[in-house]
Amino acid sequence: MLVTILIGAVIAAGVFDLYLRKKFAIEKNGKFTDQFINKKHMLFEIIACVFFLSFISASGTTGKQLYFLVFLFFAMLYAIRTLLERLFYKEKKKYIISFVYVCICLVCAFGILVFL
Predict the structure, then answer these.
(1) pLDDT at position 86, please?
(2) SS (H, E, C) 20-33
(3) Which of 33, 13, 31, 10 lies closest to 21 in space, CA to CA?
(4) What is the pLDDT of residue 33?
(5) Is-contact 66 72, C-beta < 8 A?
(6) Are the C-beta atoms of 82 and 49 separated by less than 8 Å?
């Protein structure tokens, strides 16, 4: 069931990404991955990842809880990215796609709670 949720999330992200880029004329990134908004954002994401990995290692969560927390963590990172893109680069409208990623991560997290 986890694989089904992951495949559904990847397909949904791709379809929404293509649709929203066409609808709002949002340019693609120069690279495949998302770039950081600024240096502080990059530093925050690195520190957040280290703390999250430390928390997961120390708490010993497994199975459903682990997958739920991972998707919540990604949703938090994308929510912060959405806020920063909205504040600093509102005219590029990339925050719309980031917001969709937040929603997809939250749907996956709660889908894992319900179906696993």
Answers:
(1) 95
(2) HHHHHCCCCCCCCC
(3) 13
(4) 64
(5) no
(6) no
